[in-house]
Amino acid sequence: MTAAQKIQKLRDELNLHNYNYYVLDNASITDFEFDIKLKELETLEKEHPEFFDANSPTQRVGGAITKNFETVTHKNRMYSLDNSYSKDDLLDWEKRIQKNLGSTDIEYTCELKYDGASINLTYENGKFVKAVTRGDGFQGDNVTENIKTIRSIPLVIQKEFVSNFEMRGEIILPLDGFNKMNQERLANGEEAYRNPRNTASGSLKLQDSSEVAKRPLDCLLYQVVTEERKYKTHFQILENARNVGFKAPKTITLAKSIDEVFEFVNHWDIERHQLPYETDGVVIKVNNLQQQEELGYTSKAPRWAIAYKFKAEQVSTVLNEITYQVGRTGAITPVANLEPVQLAGTTVKRASLHNADQIEKLDIREKDTVFVEKGGEIIPKIIAVDFSKRPIDSLHTVYATNCPECDTPLVRTEGDAKHYCPNEFGCAPQITGKIQHFISRKAMDIDGLGGETVDLLRKEGLIENYADLYDLKVEQVIPLERMAEKSAKNMISGIKKSKEIPFEKVLFALGIRFVGETVAKKLAKHFKSIDNLMAATFEELINVDEIGERIAQSIVDFSTDLGNIQLINRLKSVGVQLKVSEESLQNQTNKLEGQIFVVSGVFHQMSRNELKKAIEDNGGKVSSSISKKTNFIVAGDNMGPSKLAKAQDLGISIITEQDFIDKIS
Ligand code: AMP
Ligand code: ZN
Fold first, then answer.
1. CB of 175 within 8 A of CB of 196?
2. Which atom number of ligand 1 is nearest to the Cα of residue 285?
3. What is the pLDDT of residue 605?
4. pLDDT of residue 407
5. Ligand 1: does its nearest atom lie under 6 Å from the Cβ of 376?
6. Which phi and psi angles does 382 have, rounded to 5°?
């Protein structure tokens, strides 16, 4: 046998043993024998560096250090899931789907909702190439080196499957491993980790992958994204994924109706406490992949799937004090400071009270005993007061009248649930919050500058607003606490680089109340520059598609404020992008203005995403399902037959990829 053959044989063997042990839970070799083979392979690989392979089993021990995790744009967006809480919710969902598909012949898969951190694994030609966290769904962090250390994730697919695909799953920490980790920490005098989910997601961002390798992480798979149409159903594709090496839990079950879905829910609502990992619900999916494609997505989640949340755990505890927090837009959030209590695996000390109406509605008072529940959010909420335990000297809650930070009288406008501190330029958390928002990833994305540093810079009097950032000098920053010369330089160059950030993101970064990411995009597209936007009247603003009175008023308020005008002028003078660039203007036309497109099938000249972008750049709209409003369907190969029938039924023009390209060129 040549060295190459020996190496290959050892790799194959070790991969198989890994699979038997970590995926099938059925060891086919002792640890000792495994280690001997691994050592042997290591030695051979060292002697023959020409056969290096990033996916060899020897590469799983870690060692790579990642200082900054690279941001990667997902090829296919990672959506969130809609939630449901009752059988009625599920029946409503079923009705919507049946109507949408024009059929009652629908089968479902039921899966557990694994509670960890989502991950997207990319495989090309059957080989693992990268792992990216979900992030905001559009882009995440490249954590490939860390993920490689998880033994249940195959690095090479040896059997027949699709060749190019994204595998989606959840990185979890099984309860056993989590408890062991905590025992060790406590023995070392360290603080125990709070819960498995946060520890799992924290592990992905450790800089030293050999540390990750020591943690008993696991990966449970739940979706394959591929353009190869080899399998017809979700169930089939997961079964096959399991056969070729992925840990797709066997709990996945087929259901013919919502009744059968409910049997699954009821079973696991009780049995979940016996599982080796945490789950907070069930995910129900339409099984047929063709039907999934026809149903498509809303702006947030697939229409073909829904999560069902198990009833949250509840505890009761004493509310010691109500305090108030001020957000970056001046919004006041009342906070309940609780007597610490254990809830769903974490210690809870605070709960959000939302707003004055909520406090009034539930009649929540200091010193009350309250019921606390943990839903999907990280911050638990108070759901009711235990009136039987109310002290006799209890006093009705009087909501704050002045800002807890700057003492300015609070205001509340008609129809708004929240109180605000109007002292925009003089209230500390608003000043800091605005700057923190400005530098955040979806906004100016300034590398090397974090929230804590902003605090520090403010305290040292070096900045008062976001425009001040651009006047900072390295020499001013170095003397700051815990600031080395290198990080100071990084920070200044990060600030400088942010001058290239495109206008739509700058507009979002400005932190105008109610102008979120999507609204900023719309406004940038419509007005093309900050000057046009700030000159727009209320009427002009509400005439823009999807801009309502609330947003319009907020923009008018912003634009007429002298402080803001000065800030914008300073940003302009330092060269921040305050208008749409020539380059992106060139690619944009109004050729498709007012036209609604549905894209279906597989394309050859551009990817689906490029096609959608081209529609939007030319003024058209993309919708994911066919309706009377649809003007065109761009059809690629393998367009769904029922989509086709629906389009013909409604008399919608079906055009090819080439027709579309001709249309815009
Ligand atoms: P949410 O974050 O509540 O919107 O729920 C969506 C997330 O649930 C996804 O990003 C996945 O990480 C996670 N998830 C856990 N189990 C499943 C499953 N079986 N199918 C789909 N998503 C799941
Ligand atoms: Zn204030």
1. yes
2. 20
3. 85
4. 96
5. yes
6. -90, 125
Q: Ligand 1 atom closest to Cα of 83?
A: 3
Task: Give the H or E element holding residue 623.
Answer: strand 621-623
What pLDDT is stored for residue 32 in this prediction?
Answer: 87
* Annotated catalytic residue 113: yes
Q: Is 222 a pocket residue for ligand 1 (Cβ < 6 Å)? A: yes
Residue 411 has pLDDT above 70, yes or no: yes
Q: Ligand 1: which atom is nearest the Cα of residue 170?
A: 12
Q: Is 368 in the pocket of ligand 1 (CB under 6 A)?
A: no
Ligand 1 centroid to residue 117 C-alpha, Å = 9
Measure the CA–CA gap between 204 and 142, rounded to whole angstroms.
10
Protein residue with its CA nearest to atom 3 in ligand 1: 81
Q: CA–CA separation, 152 vs 119, rounded Å?
A: 14
* Domains with residue ranges and CATH for the chain: 3-61 (1.10.287.610), 83-309 (3.30.470.30), 428-500 (1.10.150.20), 503-585 (1.10.150.20), 596-664 (3.40.50.10190)
| C-alpha dihedral sign at 505, 507, 511, 513 | negative
Q: Which of 39, 46, 113, 300 is catalytic?
A: 113
Ligand number nearest to the C-alpha of 376: 1
The ligand with the least distance to the CA atom of 329 is 2
Pocket test for ligand 1, best of 83, 120, 133, 170 (most atoms within 8 A of CB): 170
Across residues 71-95, what is the average pLDDT? 93
Output the CA angle 356-326-461, nearest 5 degrees. 165
Question: Any idea which residue has 């069930």 for tokens?
Answer: 282
The residues placing their C-beta within 5 Å of ligand 2, an ion, are: 403, 405-406, 408, 421, 423, 427
**Looking at residue 376, what is its pLDDT?**
47
Task: Give every CB contact of residue 213 below 8 A, 6+ residues apart in sequence.
Answer: 60, 61, 62, 149
134 lines ligand 1 (CB under 6 A): yes
Q: Quick check: 378 pLDDT over 70?
A: no
* Stretch 640-648: mean pLDDT: 80
- Pick the atom of ligand 1 nearest to 80's CA: 4
How confident is residue 296, by pLDDT bands cut at 50, 70 and 90? very high
Looking from the CA of 588 toward its CB, the CA atoms found within 13 Å total 14
The residue whose CA has the least distance to atom 7 of ligand 1 is 80
Burial class of residue 227 in the structure, from the number of CB atoms within 10 Å of its CB (0-12 exposed, 13-18 middle, 19+ buried): middle
What are the tens digits of pLDDT across the range 309-355?
888 778 899 999 999 999 888 999 999 999 999 886 678 899 988 89
- Ligand lying closest to the C-alpha of residue 111: 1
Does ligand 1 have an atom closer than 6 angstroms to the CB of 114?
yes
pLDDT in tens, 543-572: 988 888 989 999 999 999 998 999 999 999
Q: Which letter, b or e, does each residue of 350-370 get, where b requires 16 or more Cβ atoms within 10 Å of its Cβ?
A: ebbbbbbeebeebebbeebbb
Task: Tell me the three-class secondary structure of 544-601, residue by residue.
Answer: CCCCCHHHHHHHHHHHHCHHHHHHHHHHHHHCCCCECCHHHHHCCCCCCCCCEEEEEC
Residue 47, SS3? helix
Q: Supply the pLDDT for residue 375.
A: 60
